[in-house]
What does this fold into?
Amino acid sequence: MYSYSEIVNELLKEFPEISRRYAEELAWIQDTFQGQETKGQTICFDRCFCDYIGRLLVSGHQDNVKIKQVFAFLEDMATSEDQEVKNLLQVTVLEYLRSWYLLQRESEKLMQPETRKMFDTVKGYLEEPTKDEIPVFL
It folds into this structure.
């Protein structure tokens, strides 16, 4: 079970390939918001993990093992007893996936039950994405 205070450590342990990007983002946060304590949970998921997921989903050489690992991680977040972890999942990752038709289409095929329920909630308040828009990281 994940806790909000440890979620970034868990993410980096599971996906060490995003560690460098996280370090860069955390340095930016500390320079920009001097004196404020943060482990950068939101920025890590928003600017590091979401882009990572997006790239995996649209890659011409999909890494199915990593993709399954990502969606298992998301399901563990969705079933966490820590409401802040669930909120982080909903407002960063799931809203991001809802924002791009291509990512929504691919990710819905891979979502596990609790993640799917949360995603259905997101779909209830965010409009259907435009089919012809291309994610910014492509």
In short: Helices lie at 7-14, 19-32, 41-58, 64-78, 83-99, 101-108, 113-125. The two ends are 33 Å apart (CA to CA).
